[in-house]
Amino acid sequence: MVLKLRIVPDPVLRKMADPVKAVDREVSRFMHEMLETMYKSAGVGLAAPQVGELKRVIVVDVAEEQNAAQAFMMADPEITWRSEELFTYREGCLSIPGQYAEVTRPKRIRLHYTDVNNKRIEMEAEDLLSTCIQHEIDHLNSVLFVDYVSKLKRDMMLKRVEKSQRMATEDEQKLGGKSL
Questions:
Q1: Residues labelled as active-site residues
Q2: pLDDT tens-place string over residues 91-149
Q3: pTM, 2 dp
Q4: Comparing C-alpha atoms, which of 74, 72, 148, 83 is closest to residue 110?
Q5: What gap in Å lies between CA 38 and CA 47, rounded to an integer?
Q6: Alpha carbon of 175 to those of 4, 11, 162, 169, 170: distances in Å?
Q7: In sequence order, which residues have a C-beta less than 8 Å from that of residue 18 and are 6 or more positions away?
């Protein structure tokens, strides 16, 4: 089932997510739905608040050939170490469509999380995988990638998204809610 993406300025994107504690059948199903939504949206990561759920759950797949067997599905991810070496990447976000900015983050991280089978995992990540995990964990803490750029640039990006969303809504109303 594909879930509905939340787009800025949806207030759920600025709320802290709650711990999951354990991955039961319901949380596992939700993780799979998040993964399907991420793939259908052509993303490489997705956090639960982006689909309206305030749970500490993220999914990530940065592989060229994405497939669910190699994706990371994480509950309660927590970064335990960050490298001093940095990595800059042009980030975008499914909740801020069409907007991108260079963001610098630690190149490598170490973290632990609970996987889709309720098993506690420790891992290290670097480069794009590290960036993506940090980006998605930020969502769980009510932080968006635009918070890393200047206020002027952030305001411009958010206004463009709001204008685009407003225009899409107006077009939909003109068509009577029908898509072409």
A1: 136
A2: 999 999 999 999 999 999 999 999 999 999 999 999 999 999 999 999 999 999 999 99
A3: 0.92
A4: 83
A5: 9
A6: 21, 28, 20, 10, 9
A7: 54, 55, 56
